[in-house]
Specification:
This protein is an alpha/beta fold. It has a single domain, classed as Rossmann fold. It has ten helices and 13 strands.
Length: about 280
């Protein structure tokens, strides 16, 4: 298989590139390094360090089997200050990817988001990711383009980005534990999240890419969720509470039975095992 990975120097993208290379596939990566890192580059993949929207508009022809579209303006909270930029990257950018797939007769596996289940109009990020989903479905309906939507649920694991106040919660708790700081819990801590290891996410993406789908949605989660307070208990340390933030759902929980039935994929990694490994490593 020859695959294009947009955002292939980022957290999920770089892990996916490594997995694809290990499986013997040819991989091309486009990443403007706005959040990705060159140190994550795999020497067996080809790289183009540009904005994928600009690059793909000028280079419409590729010999590809599948596009894994992971490039996006990420995170809920920053999207409140940059709604137009978020929509441009996550909705309009997906239209460019789908058009490229149409012209090259290849598949698209789109990185959706579990924010869909909290409400598409809850924040600009959720809205823009949902618009990306709708774009995939329109291209499948009108042009017969093969598209699939993979909805990620709170991904954690190696290369999870450290981006200050917006660092994903497992990575933030890891960093605070290493620094000997109390874990910062936003709001009551009774928010429940379905946490999914990045290895499982990558294997799910590849499993989805093996089929032929037309706007089909797939949840990539574990089917189990934990409150933030329960996560703190797993880390077995002190916590402090911060004010609640706007635009965030109280609960996420993946329904993985359809994904398993259609692709054979099942998550393998347990959050408690990962946290225990983190604690032992720090000790």
């Amino acid at each position: 298989m020859r695959a294009l990975v947009t955002g292939g120097c980022g957290f999920v993208g770089s892990n996916l590139v490594d997995k694809l290379v290990d499986l013997g596939h040819e991989v091309v990566v486009i990443d403007d390094l706005s959040s990705g890192k060159k140190e994550y580059c795999n020497p067996s993949a080809e790289y183009c360090f540009e904005d994928f929207k600009l690059f793909l508009r000028s280079s419409p022809k590729f010999d590809l089997d599948v596009i894994f579209h992971l490039a996006a303006q990420a995170r809920i909270q920053p999207s409140f200050g940059t709604p137009v930029h978020t929509i441009e990257n996550n909705a309009y950018g997906t239209a460019i990817i789908c058009e490229m797939a149409r012209r090259n007769n290849c598949k698209v596996v789109y990185a959706g988001s579990s924010t869909f289940y909290g409400g598409a109009h809850l924040n600009p990020y959720a809205f823009a990711k949902w618009q990306g989903e709708q774009t995939c479905k329109m291209y499948s309906s009108v042009y017969g383009t093969k598209t699939a939507i993979a909805r990620f649920f709170n991904v954690y694991g190696p290369r999870n980005p450290l981006i200050g106040a917006f660092t994903p919660i497992i990575a933030k708790f890891e960093q605070q534990l290493k620094n000997g700081e109390p874990l910062t819990v936003v709001g009551s801590g009774e928010q429940r999240r379905d946490f999914t290891h990045v290895e499982d996410i990558c294997e799910g993406l590849i499993a989805i890419s093996n089929g032929e789908w037309f706007g089909k949605e797939f949840d990539l989660g574990t089917g189990t969720n934990y409150s933030i307070n329960e996560i703190v208990e797993m880390f077995n340390t002190q916590k402090i509470h911060l004010p609640p933030r706007p635009g965030e759902a109280m609960k996420t929980l993946a329904g993985v039975s359809k994904t398993t039935e259609l692709t054979g994929w099942l998550p393998k990694n347990k959050l408690a095992d990962y946290i225990e490994g983190v604690i032992n490593e720090i000790k």
